[in-house]
Design goal:
Elements lengths: L1 E7 L4 E7 L1 E8 L4 H15 L3 E6 L13 H12 L3 E4 L11 H15 L4 E8 L7 H13 L5 E5 L12 E5 L1 H11 L13 H14 L4 E10 L2
Parallel strand pairs: 3-4, 3-6, 4-5, 6-7
Antiparallel strand pairs: 1-2, 7-9, 8-9
C-alpha cells in the first residue's frame, strides 16, 4: 500500500491518502483454463507487481484419470505464473450450468471477504461467452454476475474457442512471459497428451496474436465489460 502525503489549505494539514495495490482476478472452469487463456499475461502482470488471485471452479476429473489431483497440478502451475492467491472448488464437471447460484456465491465470497483489504481488483480474466464447452459458458455467466462491480471483465481464448475467437484487445507479452506460460502448463501432466497442449501449437497461437499487434507474442481477449 502506497502512502501519498498532501498539504490541505493554508494550515498545511498533512493528510495521508493511501492508494490500494492493483489486483487482477483470473477465473477458470477447469484446472488448466487460466494458464491456457491468459497465462503469459498473468506472468507479465505479476512481474510488474500486480496482485493476482486465481479461482478454479471444478476439479476437472472428467478429463483425466480420477486418481490424479488436477487441483495440485493447477496450484503448482499458477504459482509459477506468480499468482499470490489460488482457490479451487469442486463444482461438478459438465454440470456447472446446474450450479450457477453456488458458483456466484463462491466468487462473491472471494471478492468481498478473501482478497486482502489493501488490494483493489480492477480487472477480471474469465471464460468467453461464445465458448463451445458448457462449463466454460456457465463460468462466464457466474463471473458476469459475481464481478459486476469490477470495472474490466475480459474473456480469454481457449482451444474450444479457436474456430471463432475474434479478440478486441490484446496483451503484449514477451519471450520470458510466454516461456513461463509453457512452464506452468508443463505441470499439467495429466493433459500432456492433448494436441492443444503441445508447445508448438501454443507458440503458433501466441505468435499469431503477436503478429496482429506487431509483436513477437501476444494474448487476445474479448471485452465483456470495459470501464476506463
Amino acid at each position: 500500500m502506497t502512502g501519498v502525503w498532501k498539504y490541505r489549505g493554508k494550515s498545511k494539514v498533512l493528510q495521508s491518502v493511501f492508494l490500494k495495490k492493483e489486483g487482477i482476478l483470473a477465473i477458470g472452469a477447469h484446472p488448466d483454463d487460466i494458464e491456457l487463456g491468459c497465462g503469459a499475461s498473468l506472468a507479465r502482470h505479476a512481474r510488474n507487481g500486480v496482485y493476482i488471485t486465481a479461482v478454479v471452479m471444478t476439479p476437472g476429473k472428467s478429463g483425466a484419470d480420477k486418481l490424479i489431483d488436477r487441483h495440485q497440478e493447477s496450484r503448482e502451475a499458477l504459482n509459477i505464473l506468480g499468482c499470490q492467491q489460488t482457490f479451487h472448488f469442486d463444482f461438478a464437471d459438465t454440470r456447472t450450468h446446474l450450479e450457477l447460484n453456488g458458483m456466484i456465491h463462491a466468487l462473491e465470497d472471494i471478492i468481498h471477504h478473501k482478497i486482502p483489504s489493501e488490494v483493489e481488483i480492477r480487472r477480471v480474466y474469465t471464460m468467453h461467452n461464445a465458448d463451445r464447452h458448457q462449463d466454460h459458458t456457465a463460468v462466464y455467466q457466474a463471473s458476469m454476475v459475481a464481478c459486476r462491480s469490477i470495472p474490466q471483465i475480459l474473456g480469454y481464448e481457449t482451444p474450444s474457442t479457436w474456430l471463432s475467437f475474434m479478440p478486441q484487445v490484446f496483451e503484449l507479452v514477451g519471450e520470458e512471459d510466454f516461456n513461463l506460460k509453457l512452464k506452468a502448463l508443463s505441470k499439467h501432466k495429466s493433459q500432456s497428451k492433448r494436441d492443444y497442449m503441445r508447445s508448438e501449437r501454443l507458440r503458433a497461437v501466441a505468435q499469431f496474436r503477436g503478429q496482429q499487434i506487431n509483436s513477437n507474442y501476444g494474448e487476445g481477449f474479448v471485452v465483456h465489460k470495459m470501464i476506463l
